[in-house]
Amino acid sequence: MHTVAVLALDGVIPFDLSAPVDTFGWARLPDGREPYRVRVCSAREEVSAGAFTVRAPYGLETLAEADTIILPGVADPPETLPPEVAEALRAAAANGTRIASICVGAFLFAATGLLDGLRATTHWLAAPDLARRHPRVTVDPNVLYVDNGQFLTSAGAAAALDMCLHMIRKDFGSAVAAHAARMSVMPLEREGGQSQFIVHDLPPTPAGTTLEPLLTWLEDHCDRDLTLAEIAAKAGMSTRTLNRRFRDQTGTTPLQWLHRARIRRAQHLLETTAHPVERIAVHTGFGSPTAFRERFRRVVGTSPQAYRRAFRAGETVS
């Protein structure tokens, strides 16, 4: 039987703690046996989990016996780990134990130094801070999880389920993972990555700048197939001057800014209307549905249809 040790530290996020316990707990072999034993362990007998406390039946010695260690996120990730925790994790890693983090648990993982030189992920909101705190880690905010072999990291809370199902499939095959997915009411695989959950805001522009009226006009006319020459003529500038001022004030080019405005409008239409993709392609200035689908997938990380299924309020739209 495969032992999974879930390490609970003070301030542990409740869902991050329960996700692996539930997902590995649902796994069953074809003969009905449980392939995993899950142990919640900690350096202390009780740890804080927000509105309640968690009693950990096992101590840090469980980490040395585990086949897999899960690091849930904590509400306020510390810069450094308690020495005994860091030492236990490094010793387990040296013995070949698989270690995986959930959401901001990546901060705890990175604090051990075990992620140095590796690619990792965390919740997209926390990704810049993780990259700042741990510059030796290559942070990818656009994926649901990263599997480096022995070490894995996952994004937000729901992505923890994706990662756990991925590990179950690697350990015991697709049939066992599919059963755990059904019991968890989760698809075995989800399309896309974290990009689909990111609000693609337009680059900020200081109020009162010379470009403000032009940007308002561009947002109002992003359904048109505008060229750089047309935008420059509207602004009363040469294309060269327009490009320079755009870069100075927005950090991007006029056409890149326009594309982001179109994607933002497309997301809004997919979330709030039942318009077919062909109509949205026209309303957002992409022209052909093919061009719209390609651009949307490149920026958002999933298809327009999949985005609509995930984010449209009300009835499901096929």
Question: What would you say this structure looks like, in words?
Answer:
It is a single chain. Strands 2-1-5-6-10-9 form a 6-stranded mixed beta sheet, with helices on both faces. Strands 3-4 form a two-stranded antiparallel sheet. Strands 7-8 form a two-stranded parallel ribbon. Mean pLDDT is 83; it is low at 192-204 and 314-318. The chain has helices at 14-26, 61-65, 83-94, 105-111, 127-133, 157-172, 174-183, 212-220, 228-235, 239-250, 254-272, 277-283, 289-300, 304-311, and strands spanning 2-7, 36-41, 46-49, 52-55, 68-71, 98-101, 119-120, 138-139, 145-147, 151-154. It is α/β, with parallel strands linked by helices and 318 residues long. It starts with a strand and ends in a 7-residue tail after the last helix. It contains 14 helices and 10 strands. The chain has 2 domains: 2-197, Class I glutamine amidotransferase (GATase) domain (Rossmann fold), CATH 3.40.50.880; 212-311, Orthogonal Bundle (Arc Repressor Mutant, subunit A).
Structural class determined from secondary elements: alpha/beta
Spatial strand sequence of the major β-sheet: 2-1-5-6-10-9
Low-pLDDT windows of residues: 192-204, 314-318
CATH architecture of the largest domain: 3-Layer(aba) Sandwich
Distance between the termini: 42 Å
Fourth CATH level, the homologous superfamily of the largest domain: Class I glutamine amidotransferase (GATase) domain
Q: CATH class of the largest domain, anyone?
A: Alpha Beta
**What is the radius of gyration computed over CA atoms, rounded to a whole number of angstroms?**
24 Å
Number of strands: 10
Number of distinct helices: 14
Question: How can the largest sheet be summarized?
Answer: 6 strands, mixed
Overall structural domain count: 2
The name of the CATH topology of the largest domain is: Rossmann fold
Helix and strand run: EHEEEHEHEHEHEEEHHHHHHHHH
Q: What proportion of the residues is helical, as a percent range?
A: 40-55%
Strand content: 5-15%
